[in-house]
Input
Amino acid sequence: MTVKYHQNGIWIEKTNDTDYRIGLSEKGQDDVGEVMFAEVSENNGNLNKGDAIINVEGAKAVTELTLPFAAKVIEKHTELEDEPDLLNKEDRDKNWILAVTDIAPGVWETLDTELVFDKEDDTEER
Output
């Protein structure tokens, strides 16, 4: 399974030809600090680019992570609301947020193949 990253602090894992899992990357963990509260989006259907996928409260920040592309939600990691510390884990089987499908062709190629903490001169909108 291939993993790519987005500058907003999420990782995206391609689980098969049509499905993906999204979680909090090391950059996201670093930006937020130790997560103490999480609220996963209640949207069970289609999400648009820019829609919130999770609200998190951490030691460093309170933030809303958004989806950098449109997709259809097929599963939510509901345990995160009772166990937000799962987002502090490095294991993607523990810190995933959503499973999605129906991502537009070509989106996968626009994502970063390496985790980037500070991207300078990133004027390209994704």
About this structure: The CA atoms of residues 69 and 107 lie 7 Å apart. The longest helix spans residues 26-32. The first strand starts at residue 2 and ends at 6. The mean pLDDT is 89.
